[in-house]
Amino acid sequence: MHTKTLAQLSAMLQSKQVSATELAQHFLDRIAASDLNAFLHVDTALTLEQAAAADARIAAGTATALTGIPIAHKDIFVTRNLRSTAGSHMLENYVSPFDATVVDKLAQAGMVTLGKLNCDEFAMGSSNENSYFGPVRNPWDKSAVPGGSSGGSAAAIAARLAPAVTGTDTGGSIRQPASFCGITGIKPTYGSVSRYGMIAFASSLDQGGPMAQTAEDCGLLLNAMVGFDDKDSTSLERQPEDFNRDLHQSLQGLRIGVPKEFFGAGLAPDVEQAVRAALDQYVKLGATLVDISLPKTELSIPVYYVIAPAEASSNLSRFDGVRYGHRAASYTDLDDMYRQSRTEGFGAEVKRRILVGAYVLSHGYYDAYYLQAQKIRRLIAQDFATAFEQCDVIMGPVAPTVAWDIGAQSDDPLANYLADIFTLSTSLAGLPGMSIPCGFGQGDKNARRPVGLQLIGNYFAEAKLLNIAHQYQQVTDWHQRSPE
Ligand code: GLN
After folding, report:
1. How far apart are the C-alpha atoms of 74 and 180, rounded to whole Å?
2. Does the Cβ of 185 fall within 6 Å of ligand 1?
3. How far is the CA of 277 from the centre of ligand 1 (A)?
4. What is the pLDDT of residue 410?
5. 74 flagged as catalytic
6. How many CA atoms lie within 13 Å of 322's alpha carbon, on the beta-carbon side?
7. What are the C-alpha distances in Å from 331 to residues 89, 92, 339, 371, 384?
8. What pLDDT was estimated at residue 411?
9. What is the pLDDT of residues 421-476, one digit of tens each?
10. 10, 174, 241, 448: which could join 185 in a potential S-S bond, CB 3.0 to 4.6 Å?
11. CA of 254 to the centre of ligand 1 (A)
12. Would you say residue 132 lies in a domain?
């Protein structure tokens, strides 16, 4: 049952081959037996209550395509009935008085919540090792990281602990863990999915999205997640669309832009081979490859690591030990209470970002760093606009390497930042991006570590991306493989 796609589960539920309650129990049992540390909070009674409601809805004939299907949420989305920690000691016992819009929309569609998923603290990281609640293990190789920051989300899909999950992507956190765990994930155009109730990291970049086994499943979830929300000031007001409407279109004549900057030194040969093989597969499907250039790719790292910390330093100022979260047990005065609470509540990476962010926003450095970064951000978006005059989609690797060993880079923040090179520019430009499994690494160790193919589309080209991904998944079986 756990190997089925959402489309298959939906059909089984409608035809009453399985009940929502049986389905929920099946996944709860798998979660209980798992040793990946992917889940932070599970409430069996709550899940079964939601499943019973879904069964009643199916019986009454008012079900949607998603009713009765289990889902788990990255612990960055706030939930009324389960703790919402953002992977931080600061919010260890935090229970939100409301549900995030995404959580609410998926619940309205009848989805059944299995629990909350581990992630890097405040979504800062690329390996899930920055979680206060410990690292998540990659189901393909338990000595490897699952990627981050949505590491729990990706691991849960790969290990078939949930058929659907949510993630968030600020600079790659849906695409990179999807790549490392051999699953499918899409970060939609910035502003498509409401940020209301998504614990803020960098507001001009944060974007929620679905992760699942297949592109078709991601489209089904996106259909329920996207939509204008007047509680989010950057939410886009657009006509509703069916993101799966073009799944079956032929790729004949599709122009795939292959940026030379994504295939230079630094790209591991085994990743390059898997990605090139995927491009060949697309040529067989009727596409043509076009050499393009995204000249500012390298600058996306310094630009992102100025802008994201700047916004984070502002967003995280709300955690002061008064309004939310952890408060130190002993302190001398008000200033000391803030200092102690934040010293104890935040982990090292979060503190590093707050320091960098406060620095680049400070008087005297604002022009030199923050303003400069904003200008280059615009040029990065311009690179993409030029590229999309020559091609319909851009493809390349998601990350320069397969998943690394747990602990291998945990003392080296810069190594982690550099590994984001291929995902940051998409986020800075606000474009939709996707990762689909396209093979494995090579050699004793890497042969069990998945490789993802990145698809980058123009603004609002999600349906096109899903079409392109789906066609590939019709002729390959990487997405069907699971570690067991
Ligand atoms: N790895 C990047 C970072 O550490 C991206 C994280 C994300 O997308 N949330 O900031």
Report:
1. 17
2. no
3. 28
4. 84
5. yes
6. 9
7. 18, 20, 9, 37, 51
8. 85
9. 999 999 999 999 999 999 999 999 999 999 999 999 999 999 999 999 999 999 99
10. 174
11. 31
12. yes
Q: Give the rounded distance of the alpha carbon of 68 from its chain centre.
A: 23
Q: Best substitution site from 301, 420, 426, 454 to test ligand 1's pocket, by max atoms within 8 Å of Cβ?
A: 420
Match 């520019």 to its residue by tokens.
Answer: 425
Helix (H, G, I), strand (E, B) or coil at 354: helix
Strands 70-74 and 112-117, bridge-based pairing: parallel
Q: By residue range, what is the domain housing residue 25?
A: 6-225
Residue 87 lies in a domain: yes
Q: What is the pLDDT of residue 262?
A: 98
Ligand 1: centre distance to CA 298 (Å) = 16
Annotated catalytic residue within 19, 74, 88, 127: 74
- d(Cα 322, Cα 402) in Å, to the nearest integer? 42
Alpha helices in 316-397 (DSSP H): 334-345, 348-361, 372-387
Provide the CATH number for the domain around residue 45.
3.90.1300.10
Give me the sign of the Cα torsion angle 168, 169, 170, 173: positive
Residue nearest atom 10 in ligand 1 by C-alpha distance? 124
C-beta 420 within 6 A of ligand 1: yes
Tokens 């590229």 -> residue: 387
User: 268 or 324, which is more confident?
Assistant: 268
- Whether 173 is catalytic is yes
Q: Give the nearest ligand 1 atom to 205 CA.
A: 8
Nearest ligand 1 atom to the CA of 349 is: 4
Name residue 322's amino acid: V
Query: Is 452 contained in some domain?
Result: no
Are the C-beta atoms of residues 258 and 288 closer than 8 Å to each other?
A: no
pLDDT in tens, 275-297: 999 999 999 999 999 999 999 99
Q: Is the CB of 127 under 6 A from ligand 1?
A: no
Partner residues linked to 455 by β-bridges: 395, 434
Q: What is the whole-number distance in angstroms between the Cα of residue 416 and the centre of ligand 1?
A: 9
Q: What is the total count of domains within the chain? A: 1
Q: Ligand 1 within 6 A of 126 CB?
A: yes
Q: Confirm whether 149 is a catalytic residue.
A: yes
- Ligand 1 pocket check for 123: Cβ under 6 Å: yes
Residue 276 maps to a domain: no
Q: Which of 209-213, 228-232, 319-323 is predicted least confidently? A: 319-323
pLDDT higher than threshold 90 for residue 77: yes
